[in-house]
Amino acid sequence: MRDGRAPGRGEQGVKIAVVGTGYVGLVVGACFAENGNDVICVDTNVDKVKALKRGKIPIYEPGLEEVVKRNTAEKRLSFTTELAAAVKASDIVFIAVGTPEAEDGSADLKHVLGVARDIARAMDGYKVIVDKSTVPVGTSEKVREVMRKETRHPFSVVSNPEFLKQGAAVDDFLKPDRVVIGADDERGAALMTELYAPFTRTGAPVMVMDCASAELCKYAANAMLATRISFMNEVARVCELYGANVDQVRRAVASDNRIGPSFLFPGVGYGGSCFPKDVKAILKFSRDKGYDFRILDAVEDVNAQQKKKLLQMMKQRLRSLKGKTIGVWGLAFKPRTDDMREAPAITIIEGLLKAGATVQAYDPEAHETARRIFGNRITYARNAYEALKGADALALVTEWNEFREPDFARMKKRMNTPIIFDGRNIYKPEAIAAQGFTYYSIGR
Ligand SMILES: NC(=O)C1=CN([C@@H]2O[C@H](COP(=O)(O)OP(=O)(O)OC[C@H]3O[C@@H](n4cnc5c(N)ncnc54)[C@H](O)[C@@H]3O)[C@@H](O)[C@H]2O)C=CC1
Ligand SMILES: O=C(O)[C@H]1O[C@H](OP(=O)(O)OP(=O)(O)OC[C@H]2O[C@@H](n3ccc(=O)[nH]c3=O)[C@H](O)[C@@H]2O)[C@H](O)[C@@H](O)[C@@H]1O
């Protein structure tokens, strides 16, 4: 302990280390500091740590820069590559490193278990080791085993899955719907409940359970949300076959209190770093025990088809894509992030290029990420209108706010032919037709 106090919340808050300073770790570290705790963020990426020390945030996440800068200035938040020193200086150590998809679809635990081993080697007394990364059921036990081999000091292993969404991460973390704490001993559970007390003043429940249940909560929640999306994408397909309007169907279905409105928007399929890999992982660890999670097989399959949907629509309506110029609005997997992991835009753009089209793309935040994927195989416009210069059609892939009410006359002037393929159903078909555009959307 840095000041000899018992672990837990004192006048200075809790001493915390967060290992892994990515989309989750940086938000978690900054927000715990915001609530008065003393946080050291650790990452092996030297450039990232250097940049953070200079106050440069490596990702785009609304509101994060302000929280990081304030807490760094007030010396509650610091950054390092030295894991051992950070562990020694902390009572609670969060593991927030990546758990990418392995070749067989399982979550690759090499980073999590490697960090657990390094933490154990650095221990100098009782610590709570908290797994924040999304990990399959049974991982807490694996973490315990790895650590027991390396240290004689006592420790608690806690599973504390994270439910934040990119683009709203700071808000989601500061005002969670619930906090899940998986703990197999009371000491760890009590310290974690105390740590989260300031986040649950508005009445959000802290749910304490065994580690296995906590680990499964995360996958069940993500898989349920992914299921709703694939379900509505299938409803949209049926709407197309019968000339029904998926917007009207969605609103009516959503108004049932038992169903609710969230995550029922049809589109170009779900992307991001989590739904695709987490659906695959739950399928895999269910199958490992001989259980076939059939619904999720379908969810995955529907999503893979849906990612190609806009491309198929363009191929069908424009006849040939060879030699055509397509303006693409939106590259990130969702608005308010620069992240393109598993983004539908990748499938769509690769398909367009393969078919011989030229792509002029615009995204408010994701150009740097996109350059690492496409290099100069596409062009990056300075604004939404520039992406339409001489375009034979617009493909709207991500529903950034700035695309919702564009200057249609200006768009038309820029385009070769005024055709819009809307992958997110953000425009009203009648209104667009009145502006003189030919308009195609999903399930309407
Ligand atoms: N991105 C999201 O919105 C959410 C992600 N999660 C889960 O949180 C975990 C982390 O995800 P992201 O933050 O998106 O990943 P990320 O890839 O953005 O960040 C991971 C960070 O860990 C660092 N790292 C890797 N090995 C390390 C080591 N040995 N020591 C120190 N640092 C190390 C990397 O350099 C990187 O900065 C994953 O399990 C993910 O499924 C959970 C909820 C939301
Ligand atoms: O485990 C995670 O990493 C996180 O995964 C998702 O968060 P995130 O991937 O950041 O973004 P979402 O808002 O869930 O969107 C995921 C994808 O679904 C798509 N989506 C979402 C909602 C909808 O109605 N339709 C739809 O196609 C989005 O466009 C996006 O591609 C979950 O919402 C978070 O609760 C969870 O913590």
TrEMBL record:
What's in the keyword line of the UniProt record?
A: NAD, Oxidoreductase
Q: Which InterPro entries match?
A: 6-PGluconate_DH-like_C_sf, NAD(P)-bd_dom_sf, UDP-Glc/GDP-Man, UDP-Glc/GDP-Man_DH_C, UDP-Glc/GDP-Man_DH_C_sf, UDP-Glc/GDP-Man_DH_dimer, UDP-Glc/GDP-Man_DH_N, UDPglc_DH_bac
**Which GO molecular function terms does the record list?**
NAD binding; UDP-glucose 6-dehydrogenase activity
Enzyme class, top EC level, equals: oxidoreductase
List, alphabetically, the PROSITE patterns matched.
Answer: PROKAR_LIPOPROTEIN
Residues annotated as binding NAD(+): 43, 48, 99, 134, 277, 341
Enzyme nomenclature, EC number: 1.1.1.22
Tell me the pathway: Nucleotide-sugar biosynthesis; UDP-alpha-D-glucuronate biosynthesis; UDP-alpha-D-glucuronate from UDP-alpha-D-glucose: step 1/1
Please name the Pfam families in this protein's record: UDPG_MGDP_dh, UDPG_MGDP_dh_C, UDPG_MGDP_dh_N
Question: Which residues participate in substrate binding?
Answer: 218, 263-267, 271, 334
For this chain, the family text in UniProt reads: Belongs to the UDP-glucose/GDP-mannose dehydrogenase family.
Write down what this protein is called: UDP-glucose 6-dehydrogenase
